[in-house]
Amino acid sequence: MPAGTLYRGREGMWSWVAHRVTGVLIFFFLFVHVLDTALVRVSPEDYDNVVATYKTPLVAVLEYGLVAAILFHALNGLRVIAVDFWSKGPRYQKQMLWTVVGVWVVLMIGAIYPVLGHAYRELFGS
Amino acid sequence: MATPTLDKADAAGTPEPGFADSPYITATFRIRRFNSEVSAEATWEDFQVEIDPKERVLDALHKIKWELDGTLTFRRSCAHGICGSDAMRINGKNRLACKTLIKDLNPEKPITVEAIKGLTVLKDLVVDMDPFFQAYRDVMPFLITKETNEPTRERLQTAEDRERFDDTTKCILCAACTSSCPVFWNDGQYFGPAAIVNAHRFIFDSRDDAAEQRLEILNDRDGVWRCRTTFNCTDACPRGIEVTKAIQEVKRALITRRY
Ligand code: HEM
Ligand code: SF4
Ligand code: FES
EC number(s) in its UniProt entry (chain B) (predicted)? Predict the structure, then answer.
C-alpha cells in the first residue's frame, strides 16, 4: 500500500459520498435529457428513433438505476436540510439516514413493476 | 468473590496458557514513515511490540521510539488527553494516541498509524500545524467588548447563557476534526471545523460583542457554507464536542442573525 489508507468515516461520510455521486449522475442524465428533447425541434423522425431505443430492456434497467439515484438524492437531500435547519437534526442524523434508506428500499420495490414491467414482458413474453 | 476474569478462567477449568502470568500480547504497529532527507516518498514500516492491551497507542509509540527506533517522530506533551498534540490517524480514523487503548483496536491485526490528513507532513507523524492555527486566529478567539475602559466589575452571566456555548469551550485544538474533513482535504483554504467551533464559543457568549464580525468572517466563501455535513468531525472529536451541530448553529445564526 504505497499511499495512505482511506479515511474510515462512518454513516455521515458515506451518505455524503453517495449524495455527491448521485447528484453528478442526475446532472449528466438531465444534460442528455435536454439534448434528446431538443432534438424534436431539429428532426422529429430522429427524435422518434432515439426515443424508440429508450424502450429497450437495457435502457429500462438504466432507468431503474436513475430512479434509485434520484430517490436516494431527494430523500437524503431532505435529511441534509433537516441537519442544517432543524435544531435537533445533527443529533438524529444517523436515525434519519436509516429512515431514508428504509423509505428508499420501499419505493425501489414499488418502482419495480412500473419501471421494469415493460422490459420483462418484452424479454419473457406476457 | 474473585475478579470476573478469574471467575471465567475457573469456570473454563483450564486457564489459558500464559494468561494468568502475563497480560502482554505482541501487536504489530504499521506506521507511515516520512523523512524528506531520506526519500521524497512516505513508506509503511512494521514494528512488533510486546504490550499490555490495556495500554494506549501512545505507550506503544514510546516503546518503539525508546527501545526499537529512536528516529520515530511524533508529538505528544501531556499524555492525558488535554494538550491536543497527538492527534493522528489510527486504523484509518483520527484519534488521540494517548486516549486510544490497544484493546479497542483489534490488536490481532496490524494497527496502522498515520499522520492526520490535509496538512503537510514534516516528518513521520508530525504535520505543519501553521495553517490550522492561522484559521483559528482568523476568527478572533478572544473576548471582544464594546467598552474601551477597563472593566470595574465582573461580567455577569446567567447559567443558561453560559450553557449556550458550553460544548464548544471544551476544544483542545488537536485538529482531529479539521483533518478529518473531506472539504478540508480538498481545499486547505476552508476555515475548518476547529476554527468554527472556537468562533461559536464566542459568538454565543452573551458577554462578547463581536459576534457580528466573526459571523462576517465565516460568511466568506471559505467559511461555514463549505460544510457538507459529513459528520467526520463530530465522530473524530476526542472531547465529544458536537462539532457539526456547532457549525449548523453558526450557519443558522448567519441566516437569522440571532445569537
Ligand atoms: C429531487 C430533489 C432534490 C433535492 C431534495 C436535492 C437536495 C440537495 C441538497 C440538500 C444538496 C446539498 C447537499 C449538501 O450540502 O451536502 C444537494 C446537492 C447536490 N445536488 Fe441535489 N437535490 C435534488 C435534485 C438534484 C438534481 C435534479 C440534481 C442534478 C441536476 C442535483 C445535483 C446535486 C449536486 C451535484 C449536489 C452537490 C453535492 C455535494 O456538494 O456534495 N440535485 N442536493
Ligand atoms: S473541536 Fe474537538 S477535534 Fe476539533 S480541535 Fe477541538 S477538541 Fe480537537
Ligand atoms: S498527549 Fe496531550 S492530548 Fe494526547
Answer: 1.3.5.1
Q: Which of A70, A91, A97 is nearest to A13 (CA)?
A: A97
Q: Which of B80, B98, B127 is the last residue of a domain?
A: B127
Residue ranges of A 26-55 with Cβ closer than 8 A to chain B: none
pLDDT digits 0-9 by tens, B24-44: 999 999 999 999 999 999 999
| Reported pTM | 0.88
Decide which of B127, B152, B173 is a domain's last residue.
B127
Gap between the Cα atoms of B85 and B64, Å rounded: 18
Q: How far is B231 from chain A (nearest CA, A)?
A: 5
Q: Is B117 within 8 Å of B88 (Cβ atoms)?
A: no
The pLDDT tens digits of the residues spanning B157-210 come to 999 999 999 999 999 999 999 999 999 999 999 999 999 999 999 999 999 999
| B16 and B65 part of one domain | yes
Pocket lining: B121 vs ligand 2, CB cutoff 6 Å: no
Total structural domains in chain A? 1
